[in-house]
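Weekly modeling sync, notes
Attendees: S.R. (lead), two postdocs, one rotation student

Agenda item 3: backlog of single-chain predictions. S.R. asked that every request posted to the team notebook include the full sequence so nobody has to chase files. The rotation student volunteered to paste the first one in as an example of the format we agreed on. Action items at the bottom.

Example entry:
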Amino acid sequence: MRVLVTGSSGHLGEALVRTLRDSGHEVVGLDILDLPFTTHVGSITNRAWVRRCMDGVQVVFHTAALHKPHVAIHRRQDFVDTNITGTLNLLEEAVTAGVGSFVFTSTTSVFGDALVPAPGDSAVWVTEDLTPIPKNIYGVTKAAAEDLCQLFHRNHGLAGIVLRTSRFFPEEDDDKAMRDAYADDNLKVNEYLFRRVDIADVVDAHLLAAQHASELGFRRYIISATTPFIPGDMQDLRANAPLTVRQVVPDYEAEYNRRGWKMHPSIDRVYVNDWARRELGWQPLYDFQFVVDRLKVGQDIRSPLARLIGSKGYHAETLAQGPYPVK
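Predicted structure, as returned to the notebook:
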């Protein structure tokens, strides 16, 4: 099968290309960077170029985007051009080419201010029913691109699945206060409770989305590690996260103490992957208990695929503000 992957030089794009090639598929990799897993170098903002790349393609995985770390050093127009116009070009040419499935990589960042509970409120139980309130140009353009996918299913019958992925990047956190407060591995393991996912599980979700797109038509799914919490835990999680975590994963504390790690004092949201697991048959492996068990026996908390891809970064230059200047 001939498959097109945009953003093929990025974290997820490379992971998809590697996996698809290993499964025997012919992969057309699109990116602005000429790296080993990219076969066609150019911009998705160029409609004619996209048209040429789409020839004979049956499935599109659209991962290319400007991301949150780019907000402070790119114009808002750049985000519109890449994240909206680029997606529109791909959708229009996919329809013309007779593509069967279009899988769009979105982000939990589309929820924006909907993720922030008021003082004294419980943590937010984040499902697909939560209405997004984007807080920056990144979230706005990704939400608009999602709606374009829905429009093309409605008006043109293009099967489209939107996957709102949580954090899977290996780089340091974009928040200096968090970088200063926690060791990097400590912070990432904490996040498996509420807002992180391993890239191997993300790839599995994308492959299942493409497989089931024709029967589902159009769907949006949250792609994040399976949380150990239930809605009834949300008040306690906001008030006292260490105690709440101890109640559901009691063996974490001894390993954290051994390493000199600490749990977040409060957690304000939990991403819920129930719909993706139920409707796609997705079975993510890397959750908080799984990575704690690996820590206890001295194993790497990352999947082999995550280790293979490594860190890529988002900026060509070194920035005085840290790895990710964010407005």
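Discussion: group reviewed the output briefly. The domain at 2-298 is CATH 3.40.50.720 (Rossmann fold).
Action items: rotation student to repeat for the remaining queue; S.R. to check formatting next week.
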